[in-house]
Amino acid sequence: MTLLYSDPAVFTLLCVILGMVIGSFLNVVIYRLPKMMERGWRAECAELNGQEMPPAERYNLILPRSGCPACGHRIGALENIPLVSYLVLGGKCSACKAGIPLRYPIVETLTGALSGYVAWRFGFGLAALGALLFVWAMIVLAFIDLDTFYLPDDVTLLLLWAGLLFNLGSVFTDLQSAVVGAIAGYLVLWSVYWLFKLATGKEGMGYGDFKLLAAIGAWLGWQMLPQVVLLSSLVGALIGISLMVFARHGRNVPIPFGPYLAIAGIIALLQGAAINKHYLNLF
Questions:
Q1: How far apart are CA 111 and CA 117, in angstroms?
Q2: Nearest to 142 by CA among 239, 46, 8, 3
Q3: Quick one: pLDDT band at residue 146, thresholds 50, 70, 90?
Q4: With pLDDT > 70 as the criterion, what percentage of the chain qualifies?
Q5: How far is 23 from 272, CA to CA, in rounded Å?
C-alpha cells in the first residue's frame, strides 16, 4: 500500500495491467448480458402465458466457459491473456482458424489505457477506485448500446446508486450536488424526449439515456451536466456526419446516443473541471 501511494508510476502500471484484465471480463459482460436479459424476458413472457420453458443450459457471466462462436472450442487460460493471446494467435481461433472480432483487443486496450490514465490523474486512493468503476461501466454501456440500442438497468441504476454512495464522502462532488445532478440529468433528457415526440410524433431516444445521464449527474454533480450534454451532442454530430459521408449511413437509420454520453461522461470525469475553468475564463 505504501509503495502504491508513494510511487505513482508503479500504481499507474498496475492499473494498466488490471485494466486490461478487467477489459477481458468486460468483453464477456458486453456479449452475455443482453443475451441473459433476453432469456429473462422470454421466461417472464412464458410464465405470463402459462407456458413452461424447456430446461436450458445455465448461462450467466461465469458459466459456461468462453468458447469460439464458430466451432465451440473452449478457450484455455493461455488463449485468454488480454491482447497478448490475440496477437500470438494472429486474431484467429486456435482450433478452427475463424477470425476473432477486433473489438476484443480494442476493449482490452481501451480499458487498460483509460485505467492507467485514471491512476495517473487521481493517484492511489478512493477517488481512483471510484473513477475506475465509473470508466469500466461507461465502456460496458457504450458497447452494449452500440450492439443492441439498449442500456441495461442492471448497470445504469447500479451506477447511479454507486455515484451517490461515493459522494456521501464528497469524493467527486458534494452529496447535494450529486442528488440534484441525478434528478436534473434524468429530467433534462426526459424533457427533450417529450418535446421531440410532441413535435414529430417520433421517439428520439430511449429511457436508458435518461438513466445514464442521471447516473453521470450522481457521480459528477449537476455542475457538469451542461458540459456532458454539450460534449455528447458535439461528438454525436461529428460521428453521425462522418457515418453519413464516409459510410453512407442513411439519415433515417437510428444511431445510439448512449456511447456519446459515455464518452462525454469520461471526459468530464477526467478533465471536466479544467474544461469548465477554461470556458469560464473566456468570459
A1: 10
A2: 239
A3: very high
A4: 95
A5: 24
For residue 92, list its beta bridge partners.
99
pTM above 0.90? yes
pLDDT (tens digit, 9 = 90+) per residue, 91-134? 999 889 999 999 999 999 999 999 999 999 999 999 999 999 99
